[in-house]
Write a structure and sequence with these properties.
mainly alpha, 20 helices
Length: 410
């Protein structure tokens, strides 16, 4: 047998150390906390903007008397087995109440208030309105659905939220408001289930989420079980953010490779033809000025394909990724302005925030806090941003200080 070199750890110890690092990273509450919060704020803000902007046209888009009638909507829902609580009643009152509640839920998620419940209600809001009429958001609905689904599994209120502020002020205080909200959701679920409005897989999913909240509240006095659930929550959070990144990479890669197969993208004229569509011309003068410069059209056409195809590979290098991410932001802004697709562009930008560096997000957060304090004349000592980081670190390093947190919970 070959002797072990002096000072070198055995292979089994090296493998165990690697496993500890990987699982420790996967169960770390600090990983992607700011990215998830940025996506939460961006997505909820864009959805709220959509609801407010379309308030005057809400009945013509999603209401009972919309051109896309209930009969057409129900036929589409039956064929796709999609979910929409607007299907529970075809009356005007139900629609108006649901629309107002959707705006309230988007506001709650934007502010990070009772985010576990708000994120699930936000998903229901997005799915219900989108499945009522899938013909109005010009592909922005797809991005809203993707981010809304993943936000349910993330801990997107660890920073920049009212929940984080409440935990920082009184971490061990009771949560009467949360109990009332949880009880109210249970009553609504019971009512919908008894009337056979909620059946099948969605009933199991929503009741499972409701029961999970009950289990979480029931283990408050059992630190060992609570620590295990905390680590499971960290694992779900990091997994959901990673899946969101993978989903976006697949989206950009598929979009880029499909473009390569099209003749207008191969000969460099795709942007010219897109800018010339009458029904996608909110600013005709700007579109005509762009399409009149052949070299600019050629550069934008090839540049779009290059950036979309290269972006997934750029994640291997942080600097290249940041440059391409800035180009993607510029691309989406251009699409929103030149093609009149603001909600698609804003939803993509909100989702792409998940790729921003943590340092940049923390610096941006500190600047926003400083600006708010100057505008409001707040002279109190500024909160230390490191306090939130310390709180996240404490949640990630629970245990005896020697054993990794994920092992201590076993």
């Amino acid at each position: 047998m070959k002797p072990q070199p002096a000072g070198e750890k055995p292979a089994s110890e090296r493998a165990e150390s690697t496993l500890d690092r990987v699982l420790g990273r996967a169960c770390d509450a600090r990983v992607w906390a700011h990215q998830a919060a940025a996506v939460r704020i961006g997505t909820a803000g864009v959805w709220l903007l959509l609801l407010v902007h379309e308030f005057r046209r809400r009945e013509r888009i999603w209401g009972p008397d919309a051109p896309w009638s209930w009969r057409l909507a129900e036929h589409s829902l039956d064929r796709s087995h999609a979910f929409s609580v607007l299907r529970w009643s075809g009356g005007d009152l139900w629609f108006e109440v649901f629309y107002v509640l959707s705006a309230a839920v988007a506001t709650a998620l934007l502010l990070g208030w009772r985010t576990r419940t708000a994120s699930l209600l936000f998903l229901i809001s997005v799915l219900s309105l989108d499945h009522r009429n899938e013909n109005v958001l010009n592909a922005g609905d797809t991005i809203f659905r993707i981010t809304a689904v993943y936000l349910v599994f993330t801990r997107c209120a660890q920073v920049w939220s009212l929940d984080a502020r409440r935990r920082g002020r009184a971490p061990d205080a009771g949560d009467r408001t949360g109990v009332v909200l949880w009880s109210g959701c249970g009553l609504v679920l019971a009512w919908a289930t008894l009337l056979a409005l909620l059946t099948g897989g969605w009933a199991l999913l929503l009741w499972g989420c409701w029961a999970g909240q009950a289990v979480w509240r029931g283990v408050r006095g059992r630190p060992g079980v609570r620590r295990t659930l905390e680590l499971i929550g960290h694992l779900l959070h990091n997994g959901a953010v990673a899946m969101m990144m993978i989903q976006l990479c697949l989206l950009y890669a598929s979009a880029g490779w499909y473009k390569i197969q099209g003749a207008p993208w191969q000969d460099g004229t795709a942007v010219y033809w897109s800018a010339g569509l009458d029904w996608l011309e909110p600013y005709p003068a700007l579109s005509h000025a762009l399409s009149s410069h052949a070299l600019t059209v050629l550069a934008l056409t090839y540049g779009t394909v290059l950036v979309q195809v290269a972006f997934p590979f750029s994640l291997l290098d942080r600097r290249v990724k940041n440059v391409l991410l800035a180009l993607l932001f510029a691309e989406h802004i251009g699409i929103g302005l030149l093609l009149g697709l603001p909600y698609f562009s804003l939803s993509m930008i909100a989702a792409d925030l998940v790729f921003l560096p943590t340092g940049f997000l923390m610096a941006a957060g500190e600047r926003v806090v400083g600006l708010r304090r100057r505008l409001t004349g707040d002279r109190r000592p500024a909160p230390d941003a490191r306090g939130a980081e310390a709180g996240l670190a404490a949640r990630s390093e629970e245990g005896d200080g020697v054993t990794p947190a994920w092992r201590a919970s076993c």
